[in-house]
Amino acid sequence: MAKPLKVDDVWMDRIAGLLDEMEFGSLNIVVHEGQIVQVERTERKRYETGASSGAKSVGAPRQQGARTLRESNTGR
Q: Where are the stretches annotated Disordered (predicted)?
């Protein structure tokens, strides 16, 4: 039989704080023997690629002056 979950005010504040700061993502709460033992947060960052066009960048030509990741890492 499963033990009833014990959630005190400290955990409620921690969870609420993690959710308040998140814009896109997920929060995974790990419970062991009826007590929260771990919280895993996965956050996504979404970036617009264009000044204000709102168009998707899929298949769009590369912007002039942009460098590839390899070029950026080698300092070229």
A: 45-76
Structure tokens at 40: 């895993």
Give the pLDDT of the chain (76 residues) as one tens digit per residue: 678 888 889 999 999 999 998 889 999 999 998 899 999 999 998 888 875 555 454 555 555 555 666 665 665 5
Domain ranges of the chain: 1-44
CA 22 to chain centre: 7
Sign of the CA dihedral with 5 first, then 10, 16, and 18 last: negative
**Backbone φ, ψ for residue 40 (5° rounding):** -110, 125
| End-to-end CA gap in the chain | 62
* 41 close to 22: Cβ distance less than 8 angstroms: yes
Give the integer Cα–Cα distance in Å for 17 and 12. 8
